[in-house]
Amino acid sequence: MLFFSCDYAEGCHPRVLEALTRTNMVSTPGYGDDDFSELAKEKIREYIKCPEADIYFLVGGTQTNQVVIDSMLSNYDGVVAAATGHVAMHEAGAIEYSGHKVITLPEHSGKIDADELKQMLVDHYSDASAEHMVNPGMVYMSFPTEYGTLYSRDELGNISSICREYEIPLFIDGARLAYGLAAQNELTMEDIAEYADVFYIGGTKVGALFGEAVVFTKRNTPKHMITQIKQHGALLAKGRLLGVQFGALFTDNLYLEMGHHAIKQANIIREDLKKKGYQLYMENPTNQIFVVMDNKELDKFGEKVVYGFWEKYNEEKTVIRIATSWATTDSDVEELRKIL
Amino acid sequence: MLFFSCDYAEGCHPRVLEALTRTNMVSTPGYGDDDFSELAKEKIREYIKCPEADIYFLVGGTQTNQVVIDSMLSNYDGVVAAATGHVAMHEAGAIEYSGHKVITLPEHSGKIDADELKQMLVDHYSDASAEHMVNPGMVYMSFPTEYGTLYSRDELGNISSICREYEIPLFIDGARLAYGLAAQNELTMEDIAEYADVFYIGGTKVGALFGEAVVFTKRNTPKHMITQIKQHGALLAKGRLLGVQFGALFTDNLYLEMGHHAIKQANIIREDLKKKGYQLYMENPTNQIFVVMDNKELDKFGEKVVYGFWEKYNEEKTVIRIATSWATTDSDVEELRKIL
Amino acid sequence: MLFFSCDYAEGCHPRVLEALTRTNMVSTPGYGDDDFSELAKEKIREYIKCPEADIYFLVGGTQTNQVVIDSMLSNYDGVVAAATGHVAMHEAGAIEYSGHKVITLPEHSGKIDADELKQMLVDHYSDASAEHMVNPGMVYMSFPTEYGTLYSRDELGNISSICREYEIPLFIDGARLAYGLAAQNELTMEDIAEYADVFYIGGTKVGALFGEAVVFTKRNTPKHMITQIKQHGALLAKGRLLGVQFGALFTDNLYLEMGHHAIKQANIIREDLKKKGYQLYMENPTNQIFVVMDNKELDKFGEKVVYGFWEKYNEEKTVIRIATSWATTDSDVEELRKIL
Amino acid sequence: MLFFSCDYAEGCHPRVLEALTRTNMVSTPGYGDDDFSELAKEKIREYIKCPEADIYFLVGGTQTNQVVIDSMLSNYDGVVAAATGHVAMHEAGAIEYSGHKVITLPEHSGKIDADELKQMLVDHYSDASAEHMVNPGMVYMSFPTEYGTLYSRDELGNISSICREYEIPLFIDGARLAYGLAAQNELTMEDIAEYADVFYIGGTKVGALFGEAVVFTKRNTPKHMITQIKQHGALLAKGRLLGVQFGALFTDNLYLEMGHHAIKQANIIREDLKKKGYQLYMENPTNQIFVVMDNKELDKFGEKVVYGFWEKYNEEKTVIRIATSWATTDSDVEELRKIL
Description:
The structure is a homotetramer. The first copy, chain A, has helices at about 15-20, 35-45, 60-70, 85-90, 95, 115-125, 155-165, 175-180, 190-195, 225-230, 240-250, 255-275, 295-305, 330-340; strands at about 1-5, 55-60, 75-80, 100-105, 135-140, 170-175, 200, 210-215, 280, 290-295, 305, 310, 315-325. By secondary structure, chain A is of the alpha/beta class. In chain A, strand 5 (about 135-140), helix 7 (about 155-165) and strand 6 (about 170-175) form a beta-alpha-beta unit. In chain A, helix 6 (about 115-125) runs parallel beside helix 7 (about 155-165). At the A-D interface, helix 1, helix 3 and helix 10 of A face helix 1, helix 3 and helix 10 of D.
């Protein structure tokens, strides 16, 4: 079977595995208080040209969103997100579990719109009942979005400006950051660090066994952050594993290199799909391709390819996801093209 | 000044005050474990013809919604409500604070639609990602709604049937129940008790100083309910005050009588508004009237009448609320008519 | 039956009831945004000689403790209290429900000891695992304590100094404040306001139908306090009821006068008990008397007097509570003395 | 430097690393829905002779305690633990964060006592104020305890019986289970599974990179368990990593073999310490040794050995922890003996 259903189907990139293997029997203190972690943080700081960045390594995406949002918000705050945002849809209520409302804005190809954000804030603060409502205390966006789309520099800049104006932090979920950066020429990780108040660099979906690097870029780390991470059950005992992995990801540009690889593979498939007349559900430039398939054709397709079910399109058709990753080989792509 | 901004602007109905005064120096045990409370519960059980009903008296509406929802839901459950539902909009995130997502459905004049509810449930349980999503564990509706509208017997019956089919409780918020019952002929409180799995009879907005009576109608009281109420800070030390007040409300049909009074006054005002050519923002038969007013006219109106600001209609016009209640006198109505 | 089991067995003091009756039909805005509430706050500020005090009226004690503690603490903070403190024992986990650990210190006649508090703080901050532990973020004490005992000025001053040194707020639960103030000559409410960072003036147990006045004395009100109160389900719609009641309590010194009345009655009973050879479980100067009674004698006593069961003393004896209040009449005391 | 400060200082056992390496490029579905995980669960079920066991793999210990306790308890429940229990002391309030009180019992060499547990339950349910108190809804114990001590079969059996009698689950935290099983002859993992209602098999401290296997042994898995895990941010995307690791741990008896190795090394050191006249802070048979050291001697010791600081013994002496593990080599032990 060909495996194209997601970008977290394999273990880790060989260079990450090599680093884990090489350091396996080194003894270190626990909870991230080790040299591997320090070194990895230093590499990231240099990479994003933000020497004052404060970095924490966590294990997974939902955990990271919960910890970041809950530690930065006060009781009375909610987080603003697209209706299709991961925190709004597919985290089993992890944000509400930690006491905060997800205030949704309409999604436009998975993105929030700066004008709608502004209007929502204007309306909120001019509402006579504002004291009886959840305060919009943070803006969350994913880059790329859950639909694989990207904010342009203008779009991101506008949203960031609004956040600064209202003094609420902008949090960018970079679960697939490498794929977003590799798919366009406008924005670098340095830009992401500049526009965001906090963001995370996704490892789980980009070549690590697991791990997300949370970066506070504006000297704005919540107090007692280690205690807050521990309290959420998110402090890894062998924190060095995260340091070793992110150290490898940020050595010799591996992180972005994996991004480019996945995008190259996705583009080949995307072109092939278009050439063969398939209907794309939504245009996007990153590693996830959403295709509308005839159900009968899909039955056959599914015999050879593990794909991601996205949603019913209508009675006869289905939207599926085809995802490439750092692990997608040329022969995988060739095989897929033969089947399409 | 004439006061028409809300239905909780005065203290309590004279008969309620008389009961509080008469019983003031009687010594009773605390926390609702007193004869006044027992008697009031008995009266309500008889009134709704539901001898197995289990009744708890709480202090206020948001508190009641929080306690009922949180005590009936499991961690993994959210509550389904109209986007304009009180729990979704104007409770400062009290539901999320207790760990539960408010899953919103579109509102239609403040109401949820049975077909949309059904479709949402069908979609949820057929979603491959359902395990990663909040489980719809309860349906919340208000009767009347936040817009003063009412569900018909058919609408309520359909929603109730869907809840039974999916084995999720239907919770009816009756903050203004008397005004809803008095404004139509189809549904009685007995019917409400039958269709709902749990509902509350609002006292705060209908003649009590404060107080809401939560009624579990299907032998479905959550375990350790007193402990759960206490844990939410919602157990009134002098619980007898609630018993005394609800005892008075359910003596000589006072509760519904007050409902009829407010509806009669509202209808006089409503007719007058229509006759004089005012634009109603939304048609509804209950004690809240939403009027679109020209801003200049509103300035003058506001010099003589305390009204409720609802929202901006456009640059020139504003939606205001005029609310009657058990306390609205004939002379108040006459005065208002002169000003209109 | 004589009723001596608690100090919240009746409604409210006649002067409070008179004020409620007199203002009953006045129309006011909701949620505490009314003139009665403003006036009551002004009276309290004058009484405690703290013009910068910020005051909020809530309904009940557990609710108040939950709201104050949760709004002042950060996620990583817990509250330090005596093992017998109300928040540690008898609030059904309301503090933990809001996410915070109650860190207990040993109790000494219901009180915490300044040296033990200091040692705990020293130990915590020198503990290599401090980051893995709950941060002591507030000190809670009750005045009087749950055992009716009182802190001396020295004791209170020492604890307050330690709190200042460690920059953690001192919260004084004054559910029975009037009885504590009336029972000694050292400390006034002005002193309480000075030593505390936040405290509350209990109304429920001192002549109000319900109500507690939270006083932030150091310009330290948590942000968005109304929203936080609402979020906890603790914002009373007819907030004016609290303003009217506290206005009456702080008119013509009624609050302290009621305190003196209850102490006078308690002292008569206490003397009588001692003279007749009863064993007091714990010496204290306030309105609660803890007596060790022989079980057989207690059976008879219970036929005529409603007392509070406190705990088993041994197989043959029981500790009971006899509480006086503003409502205890001379004839009640005489009757009780005849029975003893 | 010699590293004896903890049992999670290295990566993983070579056989675990080999399994991870061997399976690294295999594509699998995410979130534990893979064959490696199924196989590992099957191996554990066979090992504990409990075919009906329901097993979930989580990442770390505090996370596991939080998820298990919160998913099994109702709102009104707390968890009973020793005052020194990990959940009571060193989890940064993770249990309270999820809304539940940790009800502490005195510790006896880190253990709770069956009689004291029974008495606490008897007292609770006979307390007139029980409704105002947190309900004891679960008993938590660690095996070995935080002090490296072990419950005997009798002690465990008695506690288990009390839990059955009161119908509250017994949860055994087996973070170091292998070391506990290897250090005595009375109890097997099969016994643990029998006495407990839920327990976990610790991987992090016994040869895995990370991972804990939660075992529900009495057909008592909480509903919607995957959703609850996700909601706590604890669902690992590449769940297969846990399956692969536990598969290796339960192949060829590796798990217990590592336990025996650590105990053998600990016993050599323990004997050496005794022979050389060192004072042990507490006798225990497992892999953690608590030694009272003179501060001056400790300064020198610390130049060559990384030890765990435990607590100050007095002004001149300190309690330290020396921990062995699966990774402690014979030469490590020899070197340490030379230094002692």
